[in-house]
Amino acid sequence: MKYLFVGLLFCIVLSNFTIVLGTNLFDFKPKPNRDIANAEKCFCKLSEEVDDCGCKIEQIDRLNNYQIHPRINGLVQKDYFRFIKLNLNKICQFWSDDARCSLKDCHIKACNQEDLPASFRKIISLKENQDQVSGCEQTNPLGHINSSLSDESLKAFEDMKKYDDAQDSFCEPDDESNAQAEYLDLVLNPERFTGYKAPHAHKIWNSIYRENCFENTDRVAYGPEKNACLEKRFFYRLVSGLHTSINIHLSARFLHKGVLGQPDVWGPNPEEFFKRFDPEKTNGLGPQWLKNLYFIYLVELRALAKVAPYLEKETFYAGRNQQEDEDTKTAVVDILKIATSFQHHFNETNLFRGNPIEAKKLKEEFQTKFRNITRIMDCVGCDKCRLWGKVQTLALGTSLKILFSGKISSDNQPTKNLFQLSRIEIVALFNGFARLSNSITEIENFRESLSNCKLNKGMKNQNAEL
Ligand SMILES: Cc1cc2nc3c(=O)[nH]c(=O)nc-3n(C[C@H](O)[C@H](O)[C@H](O)COP(=O)(O)OP(=O)(O)OC[C@H]3O[C@@H](n4cnc5c(N)ncnc54)[C@H](O)[C@@H]3O)c2cc1C
């Protein structure tokens, strides 16, 4: 009943009834007709093709909204995908005044050991057991095995593997064995409005876009350089698409302050969305930023399709519930099938071509810059934003690793034992892609709520989180 009431008011505001009550309750102003007209203008532009890809926005909307989104949204709720082990306490390497924001909505709800599925808890108890075993060995000389040689070989092997992985990798994933790394429940800590804003948030975005500026200049590149090569435009579009996705989520899960004793309500805020993407308010750039979301979506979709044969062999074992583990595997295979059957994939082979020495140099430069972006995430001052920033940059870094690793053959078969993804990379890959998928459905929701105010549709994403 409460949501019906909230929804009714939501629609009243959108229908431009200048009712004072609606303004107060949701803390947004009634929309003049001009804004609706702008909305039409803004979204009409999105009916074109996605740059450098051979497909139209509508094709991606159809694929995502009807096939991918319902599936991936369910998948990331499952045990294997909802828990991720990250270190949110890493020191910012770039500047010292990384004041952690004390906003209530920035806080992360920690995960109790008892809430974790057995397999994740086992990692801890296995380690404890190992410690106990080595203690026993010391007290029993007969049982003692001289492991010094194998330790050395093991270390050499580990170093080789690290070197090998580093060649492929576009990020620096958190070291899961670090004592400060802890399991976090992504379902319990959804990405939404936190109130994190300028100047801190701008400092982070500035630094990220500066990485896009491949020359050593102080100019902050909020767009690709003039006549930039394909790789540099690619880099900019990925970052911009990620930025778009984050800003769509905070607009779609906005905190509407309750007045007159009413509780606060989480729900969509179309005015926030338009403020961020309306061409008039963004120097005409808003529609391009939205298109960049579709671009990054296509890149991650292609990565999933490419790595499908590898992922189909994974077990996705969490160990709390056998049936759920089986369902998880089935759901992954199902999504991969859809991803693989898409006709208009992004073609990564167009990048890093030409003169092999130049191409290699450019790829390394690209890798270094992307790794820096993942390090910048340790400087994000709001824990919740840091968590999702890390997950999403890791997802993108994992996608780039898949696309450019060279250890997956042209028929998408990973070279035996050479190509590897860690659990954290797999979990981030699916969660990051799920975020992009969700953003695309949110665009559709905003479009629908603004063009025809149907109560049911407008209410689709109202959340009951308080
Ligand atoms: C890693 C990270 C994660 C975050 N997560 C959250 C979160 O979960 N919840 C939350 O409420 N806030 C989050 N924020 C903050 C949020 O992204 C904004 O920075 C904040 O709301 C302030 O917005 P703004 O209007 O000042 O512009 P900002 O979004 O900060 O953008 C700064 C400038 O960048 C340009 N710009 C904007 N969008 C794009 C684009 N898509 N492509 C290219 N250029 C663009 C514009 O010129 C704009 O003025 C996060 C910030 C960062 C850096």
TrEMBL record:
<keyword id="KW-0732">Signal</keyword>
<feature type="binding site">
    <location>
        <position position="276"/>
    </location>
    <ligand>
        <name>FAD</name>
    </ligand>
</feature>
<dbReference type="GO" id="GO:0003756">
    <property type="term" value="F:protein disulfide isomerase activity"/>
</dbReference>
<keyword id="KW-1015">Disulfide bond</keyword>
<dbReference type="InterPro" id="IPR037192">
    <property type="entry name" value="ERO1-like_sf"/>
</dbReference>
<feature type="binding site">
    <location>
        <position position="240"/>
    </location>
    <ligand>
        <name>FAD</name>
    </ligand>
</feature>
<keyword id="KW-0285">Flavoprotein</keyword>
<comment type="similarity">
    <text>Belongs to the EROs family.</text>
</comment>
<protein>
    <submittedName>
        <fullName>ERO1 beta isoform X2</fullName>
        <ecNumber>5.3.4.1</ecNumber>
    </submittedName>
</protein>
<dbReference type="InterPro" id="IPR007266">
    <property type="entry name" value="Ero1"/>
</dbReference>
<dbReference type="GO" id="GO:0016972">
    <property type="term" value="F:thiol oxidase activity"/>
</dbReference>
<keyword id="KW-0676">Redox-active center</keyword>
<comment type="subunit">
    <text>May function both as a monomer and a homodimer.</text>
</comment>
<feature type="disulfide bond" description="Redox-active">
    <location>
        <begin position="382"/>
        <end position="385"/>
    </location>
</feature>
<dbReference type="Pfam" id="PF04137">
    <property type="entry name" value="ERO1"/>
</dbReference>
<keyword id="KW-0256">Endoplasmic reticulum</keyword>
<keyword id="KW-0472">Membrane</keyword>
<dbReference type="GO" id="GO:0005789">
    <property type="term" value="C:endoplasmic reticulum membrane"/>
</dbReference>
<dbReference type="GO" id="GO:0015035">
    <property type="term" value="F:protein-disulfide reductase activity"/>
</dbReference>
<feature type="binding site">
    <location>
        <position position="205"/>
    </location>
    <ligand>
        <name>FAD</name>
    </ligand>
</feature>
<keyword id="KW-0325">Glycoprotein</keyword>
<feature type="binding site">
    <location>
        <position position="194"/>
    </location>
    <ligand>
        <name>FAD</name>
    </ligand>
</feature>
<dbReference type="GO" id="GO:0034975">
    <property type="term" value="P:protein folding in endoplasmic reticulum"/>
</dbReference>
<keyword id="KW-0413">Isomerase</keyword>
<keyword id="KW-0274">FAD</keyword>
<keyword id="KW-0249">Electron transport</keyword>
<feature type="signal peptide">
    <location>
        <begin position="1"/>
        <end position="22"/>
    </location>
</feature>
<keyword id="KW-0813">Transport</keyword>
<feature type="disulfide bond" description="Redox-active">
    <location>
        <begin position="101"/>
        <end position="106"/>
    </location>
</feature>
<feature type="binding site">
    <location>
        <position position="243"/>
    </location>
    <ligand>
        <name>FAD</name>
    </ligand>
</feature>
<feature type="binding site">
    <location>
        <position position="192"/>
    </location>
    <ligand>
        <name>FAD</name>
    </ligand>
</feature>
<keyword id="KW-0560">Oxidoreductase</keyword>
<feature type="active site" description="Nucleophile">
    <location>
        <position position="382"/>
    </location>
</feature>
<dbReference type="GO" id="GO:0071949">
    <property type="term" value="F:FAD binding"/>
</dbReference>
<feature type="active site">
    <location>
        <position position="385"/>
    </location>
</feature>
